[in-house]
Structures are given as structure tokens and as C-alpha cells.
Amino acid sequence: MPQVDAGAGFLVTALIIMAAAFALTAFRVDAALDRGDGEKLFWIGFTGLLAALLAVAWAVAGNPGAGPWIGLAAVAGAGGAAGWVQARHRRRVQDRLRNERARAVAALERRHETVLLSWSSYELDEWKAEEKPGLKDPARPETKSLMRAMKAAAALRPLEGAAEAPEAELDKYAAAVAGLEQAWAAAEAAGGDDRAA
Questions:
Q1: Largest alpha-carbon pair distance within the chain?
Q2: Which one of 73, 128, 137, 142 is CB 3.0 to 4.6 Å from 190, fit for a cystine?
Q3: pLDDT tens digit string along 76-85?
Q4: Looking at residue 16, what DSSP letter applies?
Q5: Interatomic CA distance for residues 87 and 7, integer angstroms
């Protein structure tokens, strides 16, 4: 059986192919994870593993004495590729959670602002205030509840960068906004009296 030429060029070429297989596989696996494409993820991983194993086998066949070093290089390359993919995936998941949280905070703030704008329209427009004079009467229980709900929601409203705030704080703010909406509905419904034409 003819002997394979065991030159250094042969070994370097095999190692370059192995490194390229790991790098390309890691890049394609990351892209498949980003798209959430499970079938492609399997086939890319399977093809990349076969390519890396063939490169390792080729390198060992060409230089049997360097087998342990080639194996070590293969393990290091696979570990580096897997670590890179995991770090990218972890960062992507964190970014998605941060974006979802920012959207949730923005939706709560819009609801909060809607109530404040509705209330201020009665405070700032005297003609409109005549329709619901009870909204300016702090002795009414509904108006008292509204003022308390406004203070509670304002105190719990997240500052800029609220995407980093604990989940419990966001839940408290959501409950405060819901309470504010209910208090506003009750106060607006009870705000009129017999003087309103």
C-alpha cells in the first residue's frame, strides 16, 4: 500500500481546512439559531462535524505521529466554536428580553399618559370642566381615589433605562396603571351632577 506523503504542508493544509470547517459551521449555526430554524440547525451541525472529522482524519493519515496534537487542536477548535455560538445566542436572548421589556414599559407609559391627558383636558378646559364639575371636587370619594391612583402610578413609573429594572417593579407599575385607569373611569362617570346641562 502506498504511503501518504507526510510533509508539513500537508498537515498545515489539513489543519486550515479543519479550522475553516469549525468557523463556517459556527457562523452558520449562529445564523440558524437567530432564525429559529431547527432543521437547518441540525443539518449544518451534522455537515460541519463531518467536515471537521474528515479534516482530522486526513491530517492524522498524513502525519500519524502528530495525532495527539491534531486531536487537541480539534477539541480546542470545537470548544472555541461552541463557546462563540453560545455567547452569541445568550446575548441575542438577552437583547430580545430587553426589547420585549422596553415595549411593555412603553405600552404601560402610553396607558398612563392617556389617563393623564384625559384628566388634564377637564382641568385645563373650563367649558369641558362644566360638564363634570365633580372632577375638581377633592371631597368626592371618586376624585380622592383618582388623586391617590395618580400619585401611586407616578411614584412607580420607571425612569429611563427601565428595561434593566427588576420584574417586580414592572409588575407594580402595571398594577398601578390598571388601578389608575379604573379610578379615572369611576371618577369620570361620577363627575357630573345636576348642574351640568
A1: 111
A2: 142
A3: 888 888 899 9
A4: H
A5: 37
Residues 87, 81: Cα–Cα separation, whole Å: 10
Spell out the residues 6+ positions from residue 136 whose beta carbon is closer than 8 angstroms to its own. Answer: 122, 123, 129, 143
Rounded to whole angstroms, the Cα distance separating 197 from 183 reads 24
- The closest of 195, 180, 188 to 136, measured between CA atoms, is 188
Q: Which H, E and C letters describe 109-167, residue by residue?
A: HHHHHHHHHHHHHHHHCHHHHHHCHHHHCCCCHHHHHHHHHHHHHHHHCCCCCHHHCCH
pTM reported for the whole predicted model: 0.63
What is the rounded distance in angstroms from the CA atom of residue 98 to the CA atom of residue 101?
A: 5
Helix (H, G, I), strand (E, B) or coil at 93: helix
Alpha-carbon Rg of the chain, whole angstroms?
33
